[in-house]
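S.,

Sequence below, as promised.
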Amino acid sequence: TLLVVCMSAFTLYEFNQLDIVSNKITKDNMEKIQLSLGIANDLANEAVVMRRFNFTGDEADILIYNQYKQDINEKLIKSEQLFVTEGGKKLIQKIKAEKNNYEDIAEKSIQAKRANNPELVALYMKQAGQPFKAANVATDELVKDIQEFVQSEERRLDEEKNQTQLIIIGVNILIAIAGVVMGLWISRKIAKPLTLVTDAAAKIADGDLTQPP
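The prediction came back faster than expected:
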C-alpha cells in the first residue's frame, strides 16, 4: 500500500510540474507573438496617421501619431527583455534604427506642413518611404522569427513531456516489481511458520508427541 501511495504521489507531482512548465512557456510565447504583431500594427498605423496629417493638417492626428510612437517604443523595450534568439535581437535593433530614421523625416514633414510648404511635404514623404519600408520588412521578419521560435519551443516541450512520461512509466514498473517481490517475501515469511505449526499439530494429533515447542 505504501508503495502504491508513493507511486501515485510521484506520478501526480511530475505531471503537475509538466503542466506548470507547459503553461508558463505557452503564456510567454503568446506574449511574444502578441508583441511582435503589435509592433507591426502600430508601425503601420503610425504611418497612416502621419500621411493623413500631411494631407489634412489636422493637429489631432499628431496626438495619435505620438501615441503610436510611444506604444511602439514600449513594445520594443519589452521585446528586448523577452526575445532570446540572436536573430530576434538584431531585428529589434534594426526596427529601432529604421523607425528613428523614419520619425526624423516625419518630424520634418510635420514642420513643412505647418509652414504650408507642400513641396517639402511631398519630398519628406517620399524620403520617409525607404526607412519605413525597411522597418516594416524587419518587423515582418521579427514576427516570423518569433513564430519559428515558438514552434521549436513547443517541439522541445513535447520531447521533454515524452521523456518524462517514459521515466514515470519506468519508475512505476520498478515500484510495481518491488511491490510484488516484497509481497512474495512477506507471504513466505508468514506462510513458513504457519506451515510448520500446521504440520506439527497434525503429527501431535496422530500421537507423535516428540514435536519441538
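DSSP finds four helices and no strands in the chain.

Coffee later?
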